[in-house]
Amino acid sequence: MPDRNRSYIAPDGWWYLLPVAAGLVLAMRFEAWWLVTGLVVLLVPMVMLFRDPARNSPTRPLAMVSPVDGKIVACDRLDSGVLDRPAHRVRIRVDNLGAYAARSPVAGRVMELSRDALSPSARLLGVSGLWVRGESGADVVVVIHALWLLGKPRALLGYGERVGQGQRFAWLRLSRETDVYLPLEARVTVSPGERVRAGLSIIAELPARN
Predict the structure, then answer these.
(1) Are residues 29 and 110 in the same domain?
(2) Which member of 29, 71, 139, 184 has the lowest number of beta carbons within 10 Å of its beta carbon?
(3) Domain contains 188
(4) What's the pLDDT at 185?
(5) Rounded CA separation 43/16 (Å)
(6) Which structural domain range is residue 40 located in?
C-alpha cells in the first residue's frame, strides 16, 4: 500500500525531538560547544528511534509481509495459537532503531482481539495485538510484546476498520518481540537469522486458489 503525505518522523517523536532541537539552536547561538556536542549525540539516536520512512508494500495479494523491522528468531508450528487453532508462528526480535511503525501483514478487516482471546502464554503485561481477516478469509494475528515501563504500543486503527497490506496499525514504543500467527495453509518463506523490514519483506504466502 503506497505511503503518501507522511512525515519522516512519527508524531509521537516530535514531543521529544523539538525540545532537544530548540536546545541545540540556543546552545549554538551562545557558542556553548560542549552542550552542542552533547545535544547532537542525543538527537541522532532519537531521530533514528522515531523515524517512520515511507514504504510501498509489494503488490502480491497472497503474500504476508513483516509487521516490524527486525530479525527472525523462530519459526514453528503450534497446535493452538492465539485463536485456539493450529497455526504457524513467526517470532521477530524488533530492531528498536528500525522504523517506529508496525504495519499490517495483509489487507483485510480488523477483528476484535481482546486479552481474553489470547492464549495463556500471551497473557503478559504489555501485550497487544492485531487480528486481521484477509480478503481470502485467512486470519493473521500479530502479538506485540512491549516493555512494560513504556506502556503498550499505541493503536492507529479500530475494530471493524479496513486495513491495507503494509498500512501502519500501531506505534511500537520500544517493543522487544513480535509474534505473527499465520494460518496453516500459509507457506512460511523466512528462516531464523534472516533480517526483515516492515511492510516490505515477505514472511509467508498463501497458496493460489483454482
Answers:
(1) no
(2) 29
(3) yes
(4) 94
(5) 9
(6) 11-50
15 and 109 assigned to the same domain: no
**pTM of this structure:** 0.84
Q: Are residues 31 and 89 in the same domain?
A: no
Tell whether 76 and 158 lie within a shared domain: yes
Distance CA 120, CA 3 (A): 36
Joined grid coordinates for residue 180? 505473527
Q: Can you name the residues that pair with 133 across neighbouring β-strands? A: 109, 139
Statement to judge: residues 94 and 170 lie in one domain:
yes
Closest by Cα among 139, 167, 136 to 62:
136
> CB-based contacts of 186: which residues, under 8 Å, 6+ apart?
64, 88, 138, 204, 205, 206
In which band, very low, low, confident or very high, does the pLDDT at 125 lie, cut at 50, 70 and 90?
A: very low
101 Cβ contact partners less than 8 Å away, ≥ 6 residues apart: 10, 52, 168, 170, 171, 172, 198
What total number of domains does the chain contain?
2
Candidates 177, 107, 101; CA nearest to 140 is 107
Tell me how far apart the alpha carbons of residues 91 and 81 are, in angstroms, rounded to a whole number. 13
Pull the grid cell for residue 62.
497472497
